[in-house]
Amino acid sequence: MSNTASPQATPEAGPKRETWSTRKVFILAAIGSAVGLGNIWRFPYVAYENGGGAFIIPYLVALLTAGIPLLFLDYAVGHKFRGSAPLAYRRLHPRAEGLGWWQVAICFVIAVYYAVIIAWAAMYMIFSVTEAWGDDPEGFFLGEFLQVSGNVNIGFDFVPGVLIPLVLVWAVVLFVLAAGVQKGIGRANIIFLPLLLVMFLLLVVQALFLPGAGEGLDALFRPDWAALADTGVWAAAFGQIFFSLSVAFGIMVTYASYLKRKTDLTGSGYVVAFSNSGFEILAGIGVFAAVGFMAHSAGAPVGEVAGSGGIGLAFIAFPTIISEAPLGTLLGVLFFGSLVFAGLTSLISIVEVIIAAVQDKLGLQRVPATMAVGLPLAVLSILLFPTTTGLNLLDVTDAFVNNFGIMAAALVAVLMLAYGFRALPMLGGHVNETSSIKLGLGWRIMAGVVAPIVLGYILVNELIARIQEGYNDMPAWFVGVFGWGMAGALIVVAFILSLIPWSRRSAANHPVLDADANTRKEAAR
């Protein structure tokens, strides 16, 4: 395994690296990745439960001191070393390759189950026209629609109403990815992201005119200043930022590697970060205006109907709102359509991390790499999740891969770059070469000190809670295999993949794309 090109290699020896046509296309794609399902159904409830309007203070602090610094770190690694996550980290230092594969493995697992939620949303967009859930949205969702089994295990009793839209979701995603970075991913985001924004703006406007909307907004934005003294509130703010910005699991490393060499990285990063946060606040307004209407109709306080966000909000609470609201059909189509478009742009970015890694490792062209990655992903997704046992599997896998996959990988990445390889000065210098806003000592402190402290705190707290409390009263064997076992397996798989030699056709042996010797020596010091 060598970091240098063979003497016979020529600039045409490997696949030519694709690029975004303009910085604007990259920004749209990065925003499309960051704005996902969590922005719509997670942020409003995290804010509501952690101080309301006062939560904006720790949220902004988390954005500025950890979210944006880590975003710049991902940009720097991807843009300087011109590769997928495994190749970029390998070029930074040979011992860092496994970190890239860890991020690829995380994306693989997330992609397998993320697609089925988009399929649910697509069906509910259709259900909104007739309000198919009737008077019992919860019973409809868990019973008639998902046909959830009472047994917590893995079964293969397929639900046609989920299976068919899931196949279509994968067909769309693979079609987009096979078309390439600019013609596929770029064009898809140029179409999907404006549609998402228009649909969600219309939803927010409609929700604001519902009776009781003011009560919902008051519940969301009324500040509880005492909450600022609670370390749990600050941890929630940092956790929300990490999950919503698409940092630390390979996406932004991969997307930045497609940028042209002279690109304003910090300017692009600020646009992406503040656009993502702006959408989250917009989602909070729309969701809680609708929840306020629900509370008004039920004659109950907002707190009693607010629930806890997530799948329950989207597929149980919102159908209740749609059934009672004026022009409810339009509200439903807009809400679930927004979930579909937000989910698609995020899923495309997640799968692209895996495709880029396989392309670089094996030297494959775009279409063969897409099929080599996409078909196994689609088959696994279709086998495991449109079934009567799929919901419990999704629940456990999502909880553990997010908390003990993404968070742990982020912590290890920051520690390795900051202290293992002492790469922050070199990476900051690379960003400063072309960026309008320069990175200095403050950025290195935020990325190398603040971020790992907060990540470590959140990770340890979550670890203690899961050990003491288990997970949602599910059987220990099920949580052990698909929760703890899955999180641990990601690390093992990453280590194994890092041992596999790179193909002679791979981008690692391409003399034009490979990092020069001086860069490697500098990073290895």
Automatic annotation (TrEMBL):
UniProt key word Transmembrane: yes
Membrane topology according to the record: Multi-pass membrane protein
Keyword presence, Manganese: no
Keywords annotated in UniProt: Membrane, Symport, Transmembrane, Transmembrane helix, Transport
Family matches, as InterPro entries: Na/ntran_symport, SNS_sf
Domain of life of the native organism: Bacteria
Location of the protein in the cell: Membrane
Similarity comment: family membership: Belongs to the sodium:neurotransmitter symporter (SNF) (TC 2.A.22) family.
Name of the protein: Transporter
